[in-house]
Amino acid sequence: MNTTHPPELPGLLRPTGPEVDCDVAVIGAGMGGATLAYALRDSGARVLVVERGDFLPREAANWSPHAVFTERRYRNAEHWYDADTGRRFQPNVHYCVGGNTKVFGATLPRFREADFGPVEHAEGISPAWPFSYAELEPYYAAAERLYRVHGTSGKDPTEPWRSGGFPYPAVPHEPAVAALADALRAQGLAPFDLPTGIDLRPGGACVRCATCDGFPCLLDAKSDADVCALRPALASGNVSLLTRTTVTGLLADPPGRRVTAAAARRDGTELRIRADRYVLACGAVNTAALLLRSRTGRPEGLANSSGQVGRRYMAHHSTFLVAADPRRTGRTVFQKTLGLNDWYLANGARGPLGNVQTLGKLQPATARGLHPRLPGPALEFLTRHSVDLYLTSEDLPDPGNRVTVGPSGAIRIARRPANLAPHRELVRRTARMMRRAGYPLVSARRMGIDVTSHQCGTATAGTDPATSVVDPGCKAHDLDNLWVADSSWFPSSAAVNPGLTIAANALRVADGLLPRMPGSVRAHADGPAGTVQGGPR
After folding, report:
1. d(Cα 344, Cα 143) in Å, to the nearest integer?
2. Residue 444 and residue 330: Cα distance in Å, rounded?
3. How many angstroms separate the CA atoms of 457 and 403, rounded?
4. At residue 129, what are phi and psi to the nearest 5 degrees?
5. Which end of the chain is more exposed for a tag (fewer CB within 10 A), N or C?
6. Contact yes or no for 456/284 (Cβ under 8 A)
7. pLDDT in tens, 156-202
8. What's the rounded Cα separation, in Å, for the pair 285 and 454?
9. Separation of alpha carbons 413 and 37, rounded Å
10. How far is residue 123's CA from residue 121's CA, in Å, rounded to a whole number?
11. pTM greater than 0.85 (yes/no)
12. How far apart are alpha carbons 62 and 215 in whole angstroms?
């Protein structure tokens, strides 16, 4: 197997001097950065994507549960610290081209329309966004085409309005999941088909294997940011990629209104990246850390006159729930096709509870973290007879939950879980639902501080520079040439997977960024709906 990038891949930059010059520097090659580069590919601007990692190796170990989950072969982030306890932990973050999308479950829902307004929860208010669902809707449609989203309209009772249907039909349920859907409908619930990004088109590469959710795809059939967005962007000839390059700080002019360079280190060599425009897409934690490290005479860091950089860190309250029926026969392979949002919105005094969706089918090695004391044969028995679920509830933007950088530069996360009571109720209702569906053995485990895959907040968008970091177009209030395009700008976390919202907003940011550049053309000359006809081929 080829263990690096495809040899024919264009656009790979190998600097020959201490400086690199471009029109737009995009820092981070995950969902936000890669999608933004794709949107700018035909704009006339010279776009450089800077990624601290390299291409994730394409090798047989991509599909090995032991290599991926026991050895954590691809989890390569540095250790972070729990600010409250001082405990060191390794976050589930992947520094590579495509970022965490290389191993995500490819569930790509839209946020609910209600998520864009203020939502009252049991323990506080989830704030309104500085723009509406209607403004993002055409970009959602474009992102669904780009990322090959399969789904069915009309089954989810909380589904927001759509200007058109899904690009591709829903992924069919396997027999055990179809039987579960029938059992839930018999309880008066409304299960629906999960919006899923895989290449299941006619002639597509997806084989619906058991090594999708949490694994890299050996066939490039998962709709990750590398395959769907960055590679087509590089093929345009206007986008370049600089790998193995860590941006250590942003330099600004004396008035502090413009970024003048990004200081970086590549393979041990110092490098300066100069651009007219800079876009941060490092992930919510690393975007905040980069701004805080970029002091250049400002002890509070860059873009931080509000003091809000790093604050309001959010990550979903997440629980893995395993429901087993010893009488079941037949192993499910591609399980992640069913969702449930019956308790997503108002639920009386308990407030909104959250989302339920099937996980990729657990195997003994993947379930070991949930049940570390179970013997191997017991784990094999459990996973053979189980249906596995992932439950998420909204985290609230508490200013005390924050990302900081220690004297040595290490990242520290302070997080006091807020709004946990509704999540416990979601777990209770889901366990009861599964027992009624014929699964008498139910176990649940809530994820801790090291589960950062749905991180957001830390550079919140808003109209008031005193209380937010970026404006509604995701440009920094304090700077004329700095934007963010990951999830750091989210004012709230909602309670569904954030990937499609990050991608849709990156397309929106591209449309707002380019008119500021002399001689450039809009990224979406025919509007967002005309951008990605059918997605990459």
Report:
1. 23
2. 23
3. 10
4. -85, 160
5. C
6. yes
7. 999 999 999 999 999 999 999 999 999 999 999 999 999 999 999 99
8. 11
9. 30
10. 5
11. yes
12. 6
pLDDT band at 372 (very low <50, low <70, confident <90, very high): confident
Count of beta carbons in the 10 Å neighbourhood of residue 450: 16
What gap in Å lies between CA 102 and CA 11, rounded to an integer? 20
Tokens of 33: 């950065």
Residue 128: phi and psi, rounded to 5, are -70, 155
- What pLDDT score does 6 carry? 58
Which amino acid, 263?
Answer: A
Neighbour count for residue 434 (Cβ, 10 Å)? 25
Q: Report the alpha-carbon distance of residue 301 to residue 296 in Å, rounded.
A: 8
Which residue do the tokens 């919140």 mark?
460
Strand-pair partners of 20: 273
Determine phi and psi for 225, rounding to 5 degrees: -70, -30
CA distance 83 to 406: 10
- Residue 416: closest CA among 288, 317, 286, 300: 317
DSSP tag of 346 = -
What radius of gyration, in Å, describes the C-alpha atoms of the chain? 22
| Exposed e or buried b per residue across 378-395, where buried means at least 16 C-beta atoms within 10 angstroms of its C-beta | ebeebbbbbbbbbbbbbb
- Give the Cα separation of 376 and 368 in Å (integer): 9
Tokens representing residue 524 in the block? 């979406």
